[in-house]
Amino acid sequence: MTARPKPSPLFLGIDTGGTYTDAVLWSEAGGPGGKVLAKAKALTTRHDLAVGISGAVDAVLQKAGTDPTAIKLVSMSTTLATNALVEGQGGRVALVMIGFAEGDLARDGLKAALGTDPVVFCPGGHDVHGNAAKLDLSGLEAALPELEKSVSGFAVCAYFATRNPAHELAARDLIRDITGLPVTASHELSAKLGGPRRALTTLLNARLISMIDRLVAATEGFLTARNIAAPLMVVRGDGALVSAAFARQRPIETILSGPAASLVGARHMTGLDDAVVSDIGGTTTDVAVLDKGRPRLDPEGATVGGFRTMVEAVAMRTFGLGGDSEVALEDGALNPKILLGPRRLVPLALAGMIHGEAVTSELERQLRAPNPGRMDGRLAVRTGVPERLAAGLTGAEARLYELIGAVPQALDRLLTSNAQNATLNRLVSRGLVHVAGFTPSDAAHVLGRQANWDAAAARLGAELFARRRDGRGQFIAASPEAISERVLTALTRLSAEVILETAFAEDGLDGAATVAHALVQRAVDAHPGIARLSVALDRPVIGLGASAPLHYAGLAELVGNRCVVPEDTDVANALGAVVGQVRVSAEARVSQPKEGLFRVASGESVRDFNDEAAAIAAAEKDVRAIAAGRAKDAGTDSAEIEIASEFRVSTVEGQRMFIEAHVVAVASGRPRIAV
């Protein structure tokens, strides 16, 4: 009697984006690249992420006819953190700066990122060799009872904490003991020098904790309800996988998670080793480069929403350009251009599908007015996030927030002054309120190129937008169809610009955005001018995203190379989430505070040695152990560890003089699966 072959384990990939949540069921069996057994989409429900997740996953399970208990690994990517930083959203947090001066806030964009969030300065910190200044946390201790009432978490950054984290640990423990709120310490996120940028990274991490925590909790709750007893992994910004518990503590590392997963998925689907990958979603377009089958990484740290972080991630350029981008007009021009983004709006077609007559009746009322209004086609609605996230609102913000409900309200009735418009924008940036308005997704519905939402609401929005006036007082378009064509053409043109801008920037050229804009303008202009200019990429473009077949149809002629849109492009992120590997690292530094003394700073320990070789050996042993522990926490039991050391030395009168050593351990392996 022949034994039945053991069934191949099934893998569930989930991608929670700004507009849609995707799910894909994948098996390693079925060929060299495995096989997609089923895929599905559901709307991302920001007020309760479990609703969107369950909608997508249940549809996948139903299509595949699979027993949920057969799933042995669940992996998730998300653009929520990326979108939050692009849109300036996140919880209100307190920043604790130890050993810094107020002038340090002006460096690396820290003050701009901080906004109106509170900051506490405390004496203390260390020098470059880890020697401590006197720590005084009395001011922080006095401020904590009031701060606890108005913030969702804390970010702590101490001077040279990467060389000695003792003062960050003391502040972290004090805050946790008194408030019980989440605390992020900068040394936990980066071993790089540069205090203000490390503080910026820590601040952003603290802001994202509640958002990623809700996502993981929603996913875990759904899996439990469906009897899926499989490990849950999350994609980091460098494309590696980590456990959900790991991601909960370090959510900043999930910025560019979705785009990183899409690169892994793009390579897997197309087999192309060299390509420019452009992933268009509802909120953003993410562009990156594949070289020799691997994504280029940014050694200086990911830049998202204008902020340069210390998070090692795919060298991805993120642009506020997507299917749900805000459509606006250039101010004061005789022939105003169509402007798109960077802010995301809820498409009117989507708002109409969800809220029905509450949306269409307001749009019809505005169309009946004899003259167009400045706020026509715009409505506001609460996002439905927990009330505790509304802590710390000003009086004006609280009053306006109280007026906005769960049903969309037209802005021309809701707002009575320009000051209130600024207040509304602050509520949007806090993630408390959505604004609905005309978007490229609406334009696609008007033209019949998209049909999943309410086309009637989209058409009303297009009519309202078309009757706006140019600098001559004329309507900017003759019909809803005409303005919709202009919007979609603008989106394709801007897509070509951001792809070329990325290519120029990767080549180290200055003024990349200006050159890209000029070249695309010449390409679409009927009268290109005296100088004939052309450009061509040296590799094809892989177009990803559900709307890529629509928006990238005319892309090839603008970028000078072919555009490949794979069959499963709409779930590239979810697919990439399940074919990746766990990869974590640990670092140690060996310095020489004085001749003959070698100081090892690794993890949360600082030790001194009298011999260089002994110090290096200790550093290597430490990082191996730390990397192994992190790999296990990140979700793999079979990690391979590689160690590399870099030395800084000088030669004085023919003698080698040790300055510093940097020791790095990298652990990688496939994630553990349920037995």
Strand arrangement in the largest pleated sheet: 3-2-1-4-9-10
Mean pLDDT: 87
Count of DSSP strands? 31
Which descriptor suits the 3D outline? globular
Helix content: 25-40%
Strand content: 15-25%
Short description:
With 675 residues, the chain is of the alpha/beta class.
Report on this model:
It contains 21 helices and 31 strands. Helix 8 crosses helix 20, helix 9 crosses helix 10 (357-368) and helix 9 crosses helix 15. A six-stranded mixed beta sheet has the order 3-2-1-4-9-10, with helices on both faces. Helix content is 37%, strand content 25%. The protein is globular, with a radius of gyration of 26 Å. It starts with 9 loop residues before the first strand and ends in a 6-residue tail after the last strand. By secondary structure, the protein is an alpha/beta fold. A hairpin with a 2-residue loop joins strand 27 and strand 28 (597-602).
Characteristics:
675 residues, 6-stranded mixed sheet, alpha/beta, single chain
List the helices and strands and how they pair.
Elements: E1 10-16, E2 20-27, E3 35-43, H1 49-64, E4 71-78, H2 80-86, E5 93-98, H3 110-114, E6 119-122, H4 138-150, E7 153-158, H5 166-179, E8 183-185, H6 195-225, E9 232-235, E10 241-243, H7 244-249, H8 257-270, E11 275-280, E12 285-291, E13 294-295, E14 297-298, E15 303-304, E16 307-308, E17 313-314, E18 317-319, E19 325-329, E20 338-344, E21 346-347, H9 348-355, H10 357-368, E22 379-382, H11 395-403, E23 409-410, H12 411-414, H13 418-429, E24 433-437, H14 440-446, H15 455-466, H16 480-506, H17 512-524, E25 541-544, H18 548-551, H19 556-559, E26 563-564, H20 572-578, E27 582-594, E28 597-602, E29 605-609, H21 612-634, E30 640-652, E31 655-669
Parallel strand pairs: 1-4, 4-9, 5-6, 5-7, 7-8, 11-25, 21-24, 25-26
Antiparallel strand pairs: 1-2, 2-3, 9-10, 11-12, 12-13, 12-18, 14-17, 15-16, 19-20, 22-23, 22-24, 27-28, 27-31, 28-29, 30-31
Helix pairs in contact: 1-6, 2-6, 4-5, 8-20, 9-10, 9-15, 10-15, 11-13, 14-15, 14-16, 15-16, 16-17
